[in-house]
Amino acid sequence: MTEPLNSDPNTMPAAPTATIAPPTAQDRRKVITASFIGNFVEWFDYAAYGYLAATISKVFFPESDPTTALLATFAVFAISFLIRPLGGIIWGRIGDRVGRRTALSWSILIMSGATVCIALLPGYASIGLFAPVLLLLVRVVQGFSASGEYAGASSFLVEYAPPNRRGLYASVVPASTASGLLLGSLLAALLTGVLSDAQMHSWGWRLPFLLAAPMGLIGRYIRVKLEDTPVFRALEDKELPPAPLGQLFKENLRPLLIALGAAILNAVAFYVLLSYMPTYLSEELGFGASESFLATTVALVTYIGCIFFTGIASDRFGRKRMLITASVLFIVLSVPSFLLLDGAGFLLVVLIQVVMGGVLTLNDGTLPSFLSELFPTRVRYTGFAFSFNLANALFGGTAPFICTLLIAKTGSQVAPAWYLVAAAFVSLCAVLASSETFRKPLRDF
Fold this sequence. Notes:
Blueprint (H helix, E strand, L loop, with lengths): L24 H27 L1 H8 L5 H14 L4 H14 L2 H21 L3 H4 L2 H17 L2 H12 L5 H5 L1 H23 L2 H6 L4 H4 L1 H13 L5 H8 L7 H7 L1 H31 L5 H29 L1 H23 L4 H19 L2 H8 L5 H17 L2 H12 L4 H18 L13
C-alpha cells in the first residue's frame, strides 16, 4: 500500500486517481436515469403492500375483527423490516467489495421476483394459516432486497456527482422512492374506484404486484449497462485487502451512531405520512378509500416537486442546517396537524398533507447525501445501509403497526403525531452532535 490510512477528510487524496477517467456529463445523466428507474421500481413494489393493507388484511386474515386483521397485516409489514439490518450488512459487503453496480442490479431482480410471488399467493380461504405464513416469507425476501437499494443508489449518485452538487444528485433517491409510492397510490385509488369490494378481494389487489416483473427486468437491464463509480474503481486499482466489517464498527462507530439517530425521523415520518396515511384517513377518520388515496397522491406530487429544491438548498446551506430545520418543524407542527385532521374537510386534509410532506422533504432531500458523506468509501455502502436499515427496522417498518396500536390503546387519534415528535427529537440530537459534511471531500478510508 502506497498511501497511509489517514482518517482526516481534509488530508486524504480525492478519488478518482489519475488512472481513472473522470465521469462525463453523459455518464452522469445515465447514472441519474438508472438510479431513478431502479429505485422507483424497488419502492413501487414495496409500497404496494402498504397501500393495499386494508384489502390484504381481509384476504389473509379474514377471521379476525377489522382492527386485529389490520394489526396483523401491519405486523407482517413490520416483521419484513427485521431482516433489513442484516440485509444492509450483506448488501453493503457486496457493494464495498465487489461493486455498487453488482449489488444494485441483483437487489432489483430479487425484489421484483418476490413481489410477483405476492400476486400469486392464495388467500386464507384457500389454504388457511399457510396463506399468512407464505405472505410473511415473501415479505421477508422483499425486506432483504430493499435493504440494499436506498443506500446503494445514494452512494452511487454521491460518488458520481460533482463535489458541489452531491446533495442535488442524492435527492434523486427520495424523489424516485416517492414516485414509486405515487404510482402505487394512483393504482390503488384507481382500483378501489372502479372495482367492487368483491372484485378487489378476489383479484384486483393482485394487479399492482404483477407489474413488478416487466418493470424489474427493465430496471436491471439499465443498471448492468453502467460502469461502477470512479471512486470505487480507484480503490480497486490500489489492490487493497477486503474492507473488514470491524473497520465500520471500530473506526466509524461515532458516524454510525449519528447516522442511526439522524435516520429515525426519516424512518417514522416517511412511513406515517406517505404510506400509512391513506389507511389512517379511511380506517380512523372515516374518509372513503378513494378520497384517502387521492389526498396522499396530491401530497406525493408536492413532495416530489420539492425534493430537488431541498437537495439544491443542502448544497448551498449545508446538511446540518436543513436537517435541524426539519426536526424542529416536525416537533412544532405534528400535533397541531393531526388535531386539524379530525373533522377536517377533504381540501383541508390535502393541505395538511402537502404542508407536512413539504417539511418531510427538508429531511429526506438532505439525508442521502449526509449519510453518504459520513462514511469513507471503503465502508460507505455498509455504513449507510446498516444504519439506515436499522432505523427503518426498529422505527419505520413498525410505524403503521405502532400508530394503529397507539390509537387502539389510548383512544386518541392524535397518538401518531406524538410518535412523530419523539422521532424528530431523537434525530435533532443526533444531527446536533455531527460535523458538517457538505464542503468536505469524500474520504477513501
